[in-house]
Specification:
Layout (H helix, E strand, L loop, with lengths): L3 H20 L4 H4 L2 H10 L7 E9 L3 E8 H4 L5 H4 L2 H34 L6 H31 L1
Antiparallel strand pairs: 1-2
């Protein structure tokens, strides 16, 4: 159990560090450290509106991403993307690239199938109508759903 004297000493040191932090010019990498974020909250606790939180909930491959900064840093370009660990950023990038590649391959492949069925008279029978409708629905998935999914993931960040 800490003594009262130890608690006062720690509180005084913390207050001194907080005063120094108010006047410090931090780089984005330094500001991403969780202890610095908490200290910045303490430094701005009495200045209403100076501390800003950035929360992204349920980011794929990451879960919840939280960080908080002094308002002056958020004006300099910090975003939730800056707060994410490198593994999360690379995972999101891979997911977006996969969505875009799937969209391209699905769209191009189904355009080819639709063109073959449309241009070949021997394929104009009832079974081909079914195949044409499946290719058309797959084309729409590739042209609309996959790009929208990639865009939704980008909007989370």
């Amino acid at each position: 159990m800490p003594t009262n004297q130890t608690t006062n000493y720690t509180r005084n040191n913390w207050s001194h560090l907080i005063k120094q932090l108010r006047n410090a010019s931090l780089s984005i990498q330094e500001a991403l450290h969780p202890c610095i974020q908490v200290a910045m909250y303490e430094a701005t606790k009495h200045n209403f509106g100076e501390f800003q939180e950035m929360v992204s909930v349920d980011v794929p491959t990451c879960g919840v991403v939280w960080c908080g900064f002094n308002a002056s840093l958020t004006r300099s370009g910090i975003s939730p993307w800056s707060c994410m660990p490198i593994g999360c950023r690379s995972g999101i990038t891979v997911i977006i690239v996969i969505c875009i590649l799937f969209a391209i391959f699905i769209t191009m492949g189904n355009i080819l199938i639709l063109a073959v069925i449309w241009r070949t008279p021997a394929l104009h029978h009832s079974q081909s109508v079914y195949k044409f409708s499946i290719a058309l629905s797959d084309f729409l998935i590739g042209a609309i759903v996959f790009p929208a999914s990639a865009n939704s993931i980008l909007m989370l960040v």
